[in-house]
Batch of 2 targets.
Target 1
Amino acid sequence: MEKLTYIISQAKRFHFSKWDEAELSKCIEMLSSLNRNELLSLYQSRWILGERKLRTEIFKLLFSDKIGKREDRIRQLDTDKLIEELLDKKGGNVSLARSELKHRYKENQKDDRSKIKIAFAQSSKNDLRWIETQMRREIYEG
């Protein structure tokens, strides 16, 4: 509890001014010894709201078991499911699906490229430009 009190007192102290890097590092090191309830109360504290670096570290400690699982799930999907994720603009996985499809397009020579081309043509202007650039590259290099 004393570590939590110390971190909050430092957060109050630096709430209206810039954090001292040494104090910030010291507070970040103390986070690992706090329990989950203390981390939650600290994360929700009004004194921490403006400090990105500290909040990010608290978030990582709170949700370390969930970080990276969404990316792994996206990598394991087949191309048709990835295309559905890309075209579902309200799904929340558009960016991850886009990057995985781009990777698969570059790695794959023939199998799924036509599906990916059609999906990118339907997705957005930036995706359309990207696929056009890739197709031009294929024409001039091949």
Note: The chain has a mean pLDDT of 88.
Target 2
Amino acid sequence: MKEKRERDGFLEFASRVHKARLDTRCKVLLWHYAYGFNWLKGQPSFYSQRQICLLTGMSASSYQKARKRLLELGWIIEFKRGRRQTVLVTPRVGRDDDEVVLRFGLPKTDEISLEDAIGSLPDEFTDPFWDEGRAAS
């Protein structure tokens, strides 16, 4: 049996974040927390707000809004160690953000199947041998 590598958990989680219905700044922050998380030992990310803002190009206010939203949706768990120490953050799978779904008019993840989505595409997107000349005749 193949041994599980340290980053395997990160790749699976990153795939879930990729598909999640979240605001862009939330996805960036969540990805950063997941990147800093030690998947082998289960140790939380310890980056400070300042470090994350420098690494992601996010402003402090955007960071605070995204962190608060991720907490509300259950995507992260925080452990506050003390006033002058960084907060430890553990990523986990949370809920989709209904505000993002409504803003962009997206169907909820469970409302549309892959088969329905593929079936609604025009032929030129589903048939690898589709020919524009054939469509014109």
Note: The CA atoms of residues 19 and 77 lie 20 Å apart.
